[in-house]
Design goal:
The chain has 118 residues and is mainly alpha-helical. The chain has a domain of 47 residues. The protein is 67% helix and 3% strand. Strand 1 and strand 2 form a beta hairpin. It is flat and about 55 Å long.
Length: 118
């Protein structure tokens, strides 16, 4: 069926199979008749999952441009991230540390990016 606008049966089968697997794996805990608890080590590890996922998305965006590591210090993302991190570590006990981190990072990033073209 190359060149046609339709979807072949193999693709539909894969989509349906993945949908079934997703429903089964996500509802496994509801289907089970016995109560099930995560081990302590897994519960402790899940506390770090959001920050690990966020780091996996943000860090490459800050240190890479077009699939290559940034070779110059003249990149607004580096300075914005450094300023935001410095603010966070300075005010981490305060209630507005996360919002302040974003504001300070953007306050450094925007003038460098828009004003200097970094």
């Amino acid at each position: 069926m190359s060149g046609s606008a339709g979807t072949d049966l193999w693709t539909l089968g894969v989509i349906c199979g993945l949908a079934v697997m997703t429903v089964v794996t996500r509802s496994f805990f509801f289907i089970s008749s016995k109560p099930w608890h995560l081990p302590h080590w897994a519960q402790r590890g899940l506390r770090y999952a959001p920050i690990a996922a966020l780091s996996a998305v943000i860090v490459p965006e800050v240190v890479m441009a077009q699939g290559q590591l940034i070779a110059s210090w003249q990149d607004a993302r580096i300075w914005g991230a450094a300023a935001g991190a410095a603010f966070y570590f300075w005010r981490r006990g305060a209630g507005q540390a996360v919002l302040g981190t974003i504001v300070v990072g953007m306050a450094v990033y925007l003038p460098l990016h828009l004003g200097l073209g970094w």
